[in-house]
Design goal:
Layout lengths: L9 H9 L6 H4 L4 H14 L1 H18 L2 E2 H15 L11 H12 L2 E2 L14
Parallel strand pairs: 1-2
Helix pairs in contact: 3-4, 3-5, 4-6, 5-6
């Protein structure tokens, strides 16, 4: 019997929409909340265009509010961890500029979604 989806973390939904991957919200509803940030990071590692969109989205949020959402922070950390110790089949790492921006995002203060206004949530492909 198929398993039913769960309630999806709002920060995950906002981030998926913000990078133009709205259609993946349904897929992420089947991923446990605690596993959604690492799963999203894996998506970013394999889709460089989405990684660039994520980095730019987070920079806008940080500029506007001085903090990034907790979930986004966790996802950024997982991306950095994957690229710092890549598995043998890992895709080519992004440019040093993207890594530098991602590192700054990860080092930024965090806040809940209500405290850190979400930027770029109307993005689409």
């Amino acid at each position: 019997m198929p398993r039913q989806g769960r309630v999806l973390n709002l920060e995950c939904v906002e981030t998926l929409i913000g990078i133009g991957e709205r259609e993946l919200a349904g897929v992420f509803s089947f991923i446990a909340d605690g596993d959604s940030a690492p799963a999203f990071a894996d998506l970013l590692v394999h889709k460089k265009k989405d990684l660039k969109r994520f980095v730019e989205r987070e920079r806008k949020i940080l500029k506007k509010s001085g903090a990034i959402p907790h979930w986004d922070h966790d996802a950024a950390g997982y991306v950095l961890a994957i690229f710092s110790n890549p598995p043998a089949d890992a895709p080519e790492p992004p440019s040093k500029g993207i890594i530098k921006k991602l590192t700054a995002i990860y080092a930024a203060p965090t806040a809940s979604t209500t405290q850190a206004p979400v930027a770029g949530s109307s993005g689409s492909k």
